[in-house]
Amino acid sequence: MNNYKIAVIKGDGIGPEIVDEAIKVLDAVAGKEGFNLEYNEFLLGGSAVDVFDNPCPDETIKGCLNSNAVLFGSIGGEKWDNLPKEKRPEFGLLKLRKSLGLFANIRPAIIFDELINASTLKPEVIKDVNLSVVRELTGGIYFGQPREKMADVAFNTMIYTKEEIERIAEVAFEEAMKRRKKVTSVDKANVLEVSELWRETVEEIHKRYPLVELEHMYVDNAAMQLVRNPKQFDVILTGNIFGDILSDEASMIIGSIGLLPSASIGGKVGLFEPIHGSAPDIAGQGIANPIATILSAAMMLDFLGENKASQRINTAIKNVLQEGYRTKDLASFDAKEVVTTEEMGSLIAEHAAN
Q1: pTM value surpassing 0.85
Q2: CATH number of 1-110+257-354: 3.30.70.270, 3.40.50.2300, 3.40.50.300, 3.40.718.10?
Q3: Which CATH class is domain 120-254?
Q4: pLDDT for 271-302, tens place per residue?
Q5: What is the tens place of the pLDDT at every residue in 54-109?
Q6: Where along the chain do its domains lie?
Q7: What 3-state class would DSSP assign to 68?
Q8: Hey, is 291 helix, strand or coil?
Q9: Which residues are designated catalytic?
Q10: 275 Cβ partners below 8 Å, 6+ apart?
């Protein structure tokens, strides 16, 4: 029996609620497929600040590095917004990603037929949408040096090295090889020198993948095309800030940010999390949608090589939605019964174990 050590970071706000449901589903499929998951819990974000006065304690980094994968909920909230930057929850997550060497963020956006009316776009526009955003995670303007804020002026620098671009491009082309073999590289090469290097480097990496179609698209056009015709995209490859924005846009195409999972990879350990925030305004009410976290857990199983178990989870979610169960955020979309966070997790776990 395979045994996997999973670092669990529940985080803040709704994080503990949604992670608990993902663990429930993971245990259901582990028992069915004959492997074992050993969970070790660590603190990150606001909860870590409250205990350690540090949003990313060394203990958390060491614990994650000694695991096979990390299951993560969400962090942040108004309670910690006025702290110095280095003590804010978001700084802790950036530090963890950097410490684990997680340079690639993969965010799939797949429409569920059962939720096609949840999108604000016409059904014929979004039916069969299945795309994946591959976002560079540790470079670009979020990490560029120098950076400074003065009384009347502030500046940030967008910096990418050729090596950083090469490795994220390789991830995107490998992802495309598993899918429909098309990469759309998104940049702003008409005005940014950084994007000129990005485009040149992506072209070089493309030579290693002759079966993959490559197209380039400016980020402003890509934002429009995602709304106009999202089905044209397979894998979207882009930098940190552009990927941050475009993947959130993709979530609204699908209908709810509560439906999109993500995987951060590149180092020895992968980190798997929903793309939404901690939603402190609904924490503890039992109304958060756990599906994005459960889908992230399925991506984690794929990362570990437990593909049958991952497929069980995806099928279970589809079956539960087909039966008309919805959490509150999706209550107005063909709901036969509105269920709590815990009830949704239990329903998916039950289906996954059958």
Answers
A1: yes
A2: 3.40.718.10
A3: alpha beta
A4: 999 989 999 999 999 999 999 999 999 999 99
A5: 999 999 999 999 999 999 999 999 999 999 989 999 999 989 998 999 999 999 99
A6: 1-110+257-354, 120-254
A7: coil
A8: helix
A9: 142, 188, 220, 244, 248
A10: 107, 247, 248, 251, 257, 260, 261, 262, 292
